[in-house]
Structure formats: structure tokens, C-alpha cells
Amino acid sequence: MSEEILKKLAEAMYEGDSDLVETLTKEALDAGVAPGDIIEKGGVSALDRLGKDFSELVVFLPQLMLAGHAMNKLLQIVRPHLSEKEGASRGKIIIGTAKGDFHDIGKSLVATQLEVSGFEVIDIGTNVSTNEFIQKAEETGADIIAMSSLLTTSQYYMEDCIKRLNDEGKRGTYRVVVGGGPIRQNYAEKIGADGYARTAYGSVSLCKELMKKTPDTEFIAIDA
Amino acid sequence: MDAHKKILRTLDKARTAPRVTEKEWDQIIVPNTAAEVVKAHGLTKTCDPVNPVNTDLELADKFFKAGWDLALRLGFFCPDTESVVKVDEEELHREFCKAPASFTVGKNNEVVTVSARKPSDGKPPVYVAPLSIQMDEELYVPLAEGIVSSRLVDMQEGPSIDTVMGRPLLADTPYETFAGIYEYHLRKEAQWRAGRVGMASALVSSSSTHFGFLGAFHLYEQPQIALCLNPASLKVNYTTLHKCFVANELNAFIRSESPTMIGGYTGGPEATAICSIATDILQFPITGAHLPGSPSYDIRYAGNCGRHGIWTQSIATQAVTRNSNILQMKTINQVAGPFTKMFFLETISGMTAASASGQTFTISPRSAGGSVKNHLTPLECWYNAAVFKGAAGISLAKANEIVKEVIPQFEDDLYNPPKGRSFQDLYDIKTLTPCEEYVKFYLEMREYAKSLGITMPGDGVLC
Predict the structure, then answer these.
(1) Which partner for B294 in A55, B275, B279, B382 could form a disulfide, CB atoms 3.0-4.6 Å apart?
(2) What is the pLDDT of residues B163-215, one digit of tens each?
(3) ipTM for the complex?
(4) Residue B232 touches chain A, beta carbons under 8 Å
(5) Domains present along chain B, CATH in parentheses
(6) Ramachandran bin of A49, using left for φ above 0, alpha for ψ from -120 to 50, beta for the remaining angles
(7) Pairwise CA distance, residues A182 & A8, whole Å
(8) Class of domain A2-87
């Protein structure tokens, strides 16, 4: 019975069907399935399969994003049933593309990877000003500010944001990560970011590592 | 005035159409509609990565019909108004038929005619260099001079700079306005030094928003090629339309496009190809472009010289060039950098497939994926030009044979490509002389391309 529900849940997760994921997650809890099993066998296993299929062009970005939203739904329902330690969100992340840059795909891919990995992600879109990044981080109590840029003329705003956080005495509140086509590890380190990852997959390990540390203490780079 | 009215119609439609969110457009409308059209036209799983250059011309024609169908069903999304600019069949047909089959730019010895080509066309295509790769501002003039000193390069587009007189070039600020003006002076200096006064340009490259364009495009003797790029495939925004008005008033030729991403919102290779075709077709009624060309990149490595990238781009190009007389332009995105064997192999794959598929025009290279500053030298540009022009007249079957020979030599490295070496590393900047080891390697790679059956015209500088 439990295995059957988890199998259906994994399938609904793979299809990105949030409504069905919600129903089946509640059904699994009612049937007494362990919350950890619901996450691993109902959610993570489907996401692993999606990741593999994405790398082979069997599924595409929209399916990943739908699954990201469905995983978020599953976690919202299961979290209250976990122990305090297990149930904690991995962290809250504000993500956007820097001012003057309208490129969306890379940022969305990173947002999805983080979301499916248990982070609470607030995507504030493209062409985001320094003020907006800081204001949204304050409003939502974010742990991490993640900035993306494909244009070197926009990457200056990453430096600007970190400087503003320093000047206003807020740097110790937020971990700052940067990424995007022209962004390199040495640039991220030079402008005082907390971390840099070369790929969307790497951004998950990066944010997990950063959440173990206090902001602005150690630079972490993930070259994967 | 007709051209202005076309842009006004686009603005009116965007302003009055029902609201659609960008999320709905990206995540639901585009992927679902493209998938439906692929299925309805019987194109599911037609991508053949084993044979990256398509040789089935009937299949290319089917893709054209599907792209046309998709264009009518979708239109362009406008993020500024959160609405969709739709086009009906009569309007699309009328504007598509009026699209130019050729135009001429440049003065005196620098006159270049850009004219439509067909698959396996013996007429050489037009080559423009480089893409807007970021360079230190003090390197702009020597690099541009070096690049255009070869007559294989017909026009100049990049490089671009990210500082102006030592100040950061911040996007969406007056620094960009000045960058456009500053680039004008640097470009004139470089072309004069190279003896290419009168050479046409594609402009403006050092400004991501419209400010640099509005500040400087009018400074150039017209007509030039106006870079009025879309924010993304199947989208148009106010920034693009600001530029289109100015370009039209100055009788310039509009180049408008944005990449489609294989694996991104548009889906797999087949759906991405028809989205690319639809993006090209819709440019005529929506932006009034003269030179459309939505390239397709593989989202997994942000380039298009691997199997799926070559296949998608070759079938989309063949579809358009076989079924129209429009001027087709697409970019080839290498991900490896200067003085790496991989860069030259990617170039052979991408440029041979593009030229044989009937492309009219390209701008390249995108050395090191365009993401590493100062990683561009004249030699990569000349090699790109020689392959692109030297592959004119090659059959699609021969192009496929060449690509199949070359791709296995680099495809495993697409996800972690070598970034190569910088301009300063490989050149004596003062005398504009490449280091001996790079010249030797460049000449060897030319011989390799010749051995594959590409004629490789001389660069006029080193060979």
C-alpha cells in the first residue's frame, strides 16, 4: 500500500503535477508512511530521474520548473511532520538577474535546482536593481542573496550590492553568491561574495555549504 | 514612413492586447504550443544526432511549414506590456514576401552586397567579426585593427568594452550613452589603421540597453547594420523598438534575433528548430528586420557546435533558405578559447554546416563562449571566415561527413572546455604580431581543414 502510494507520488512529481502531489503526499502521511521516505522515495528519486533525463534532452526546463514547484508543495506538507532538525528549510534565497540584464534562463535553472533541493527560493526576476535585491532580502528575511548576470555591464551591480550591504552594516546578515556567463571565481572573490559555482548543479552544494557558515567569513567556490 | 508605421502597429498591439504573464508565456504557452505543432506536423523524434547535418530536404520543408504555423499561433511576447503581439496570416504573408533578398553596405573599396543563399550554394557568404567579446578598452583598437586587416572579414561588429576611460560601464546608465560615442571613435581609429575606411559595421556593441545605440548610431555614415536584438526568442521589448525607429529613420538595415535554447523553454531539438524559424519569420511584421536569424544553443553547455546544436541549426537554416529568399544569419557559438585545438574543430563543425545549409551571413567567433575577457585574437576570426567561405558549394552530404569526422574529437569536452589564452598572451600588441607557435598551429589547422575538403581562402596576412 505504502509502496504503491510512493510510486504514484514519484510519478506525479516527475510529471510536475502539483495538485496530485499534494493529494498523494497527504494520502501517504495518512497511511503512516515515514516523512523521510515521502521526501526521498516520492520526491528526490523522481527529481534524480528528471535530472538524468534533462541531461539527455528527454525533458526540458519547463518540466524541471514544474517539478520544482511540486517538490516545494510536498515539502510544505511534510515539513510539520518532521523532527525540528529534519524539518528545517535548508534556507531562504532571493534570486534575480542584475540590473540592465534581461537574461532569464540560467537564473531560472539555478532557482529550480535550489528549490528542488529543499531551499525556499524567491525569484525576483530580471533587471533587478541593487535596491530591490536588498529590499526583498529584508522583507523576506532571506539567508542568501543570489545574483546572476550574463553581461559584464551588469556584473558591476553585483559589486555595488555587496558594497551597499557593507556600507549599511548589513553584510553580516546575508550570504551573497554570484554567477552567470562572464562571472569567474576570481571576480566573485574580488568583489567580496561568499561564494561562486560554475554550474546550476554546483550552486546547490555551494548554498548548502554556505548555510553552515556565518555570512562574510569564508569564500567557497564549486567548480562543478 | 511605412517602416515607422510597422513599429507603431507593433506598439499598438502590445499596448491593447490582453495581459499574459511572462511566466505563463515561458513555462506553458511556448512549450505546450511548440510541442503540439511538432506533433501535428509529424516531426516528433526526427532529430538525428548521428547525422548532425540534415540531408533530408523534404524534412526541412516540413519544418518550415511547422515554423510558419507556430508563428501564427504564438506571435511575440512583450515583457514591457505583458501582452502578446499577434500577427494574422495575411499580414505575415505580406511582410514576408516584401522581405529583402539583398542589400548593399560600405563605401568605395569596402562595398559588400549581402544576398540570399540556398543550401550548397557556391556563392560565398558574408563574414562579420567579431562578436561582442569583452576586451580591456586599451586593447580595443589593436584587436579590431588586427581583425579587419584581413579582407576575409567583410564587416566589423565587436569587440565590446566594459570600461569607458577607466570608469565602469554600468548598464542602463549614461555611461552606456557615452560608451556608444566612445566606441565610435575607437572603431574609426581601428578601421583607419587597417586601411579599411568605409568598411560597414554592425552597431552598437558596447551597450546592452538602448542608450548606447540612441547616443551613437547616428554618428556613422549610413547605411549600416543596426543591432536591434530581441530580449529572447519569440519576444520583443521597448529597447528593441527604440532602436528600430532610429534605424528606420536613418535607412539602416535592421538585424534582429535572439537565441532559442535546446532544452530550455522551447523544448527539444525539433521544437527549438520550429521556434527558431517562427522567431525569424515574425521579425518581418513585428520589427521590420532585414536580417533575421535566431540561432539555437544547447542549454547544457551554452554553445551550438555539438550534435544537437548542429542538427537544430542546420535544419532551421535549410527550412528558411529553401522556402524563401530572406537573408538568413545565425551565429556559431564555440565554447573553447584561442589556441586550443577544440576551438578550431568546433569552428569546422559549426561553420561548415552553416555555410552548406545556405546561411547568408554570420558574425563570429564566440571564443571561450564569450565569457572570458580578452580571450580573442585575429587568428580565430580569420579561421572562421576561411571555413565559412571555403565551405560554399559543399553538398549537405559532404558537410555531414566532415562534421561526423570532427565532432568526436571534441564533444566530450563541451561541458568543461579549455578557455585557451588571451590576446596579450598570444600577440605582441605593439607590432600586432602573433607568437610563432600560434602561427604554426593556425597554419596546421588550415591544412587540416583543407584535408577535409574545405578550400580555405587565404587570409592575405599570413597566407
Answers:
(1) B279
(2) 999 999 998 899 999 999 999 999 999 999 999 999 999 999 877 789 999 99
(3) 0.89
(4) yes
(5) 102-451 (3.20.20.460)
(6) alpha
(7) 42
(8) mainly alpha
> Mind telling me how many Å the CA of A66 is from chain B's nearest CA?
8
Based on the number of CB atoms within 10 Å of its own CB, is B191 exposed (0-12), middle (13-18) or buried (19 or more)? Answer: buried
Nearest alpha-carbon partner for B34 in B202, B298, B270, B215: B270
Interface contact flag, A151 B231, Cβ < 8 Å? no
pLDDT value of position B224: 98
CB contact under 8 A, B302 and A181: yes
Looking at residue B222, what DSSP letter applies?
S
Q: Which of B342, B318, B308, B347 is nearest to B331 (CA)?
A: B347
pLDDT tens for residues B37-81? Answer: 999 999 999 999 999 999 999 999 999 999 999 999 999 999 999
Inform me whether the C-beta atom of residue B26 falls under 8 Å from chain A C-beta atoms.
Answer: yes
For B310-347, the DSSP string reads HHHHHHHHHHHHHS-----B------S-TT-HHHHHHH
- Interface size A-B, in CB pairs within 8 Å, comes to 83
Q: Mind listing the pLDDT tens digit for each residue in B371-406?
A: 899 999 999 999 999 999 999 999 999 999 999 999
Rounded-to-integer distance, Cα B284 and Cα A98, Å: 31
**Is B265 in Cβ contact with A156 (below 8 Å)?**
no
**Domain A92-222, CATH among 3.40.50.280, 3.10.20.30, 3.40.50.170, 3.90.550.10:** 3.40.50.280
**Distant-in-sequence, close-in-space partners of B426: CB < 8 Å, separation ≥ 6:** B338, B339, B377, B379, B434, B435, B438
Is there a contact between A54 and B263 if contact means CB atoms under 8 Å apart? yes
Task: State the Cα–Cα distance between residues A18 and A135, nearest whole angstrom.
Answer: 30
- SS3 at position B148: helix
Which of A60, A127, A190 is the best mutation test for B, with the most CBs of B within 10 A?
Answer: A60
* E strand or H helix at B13: helix B2-16
Q: Which grid cell sits at B311? A: 542538427
Residue B168's CB is within 10 A of a number of other CB atoms, namely: 17
Grid coordinates belonging to B298: 544547447
- Contact (CB<8Å) A101/B268: no
CB of B152 less than 8 A from some CB of A: no
Q: Where are the domains of chain A?
A: 2-87, 92-222
Q: Which of A120-129, B123-132, B311-320 has the lowest mean pLDDT?
A: A120-129
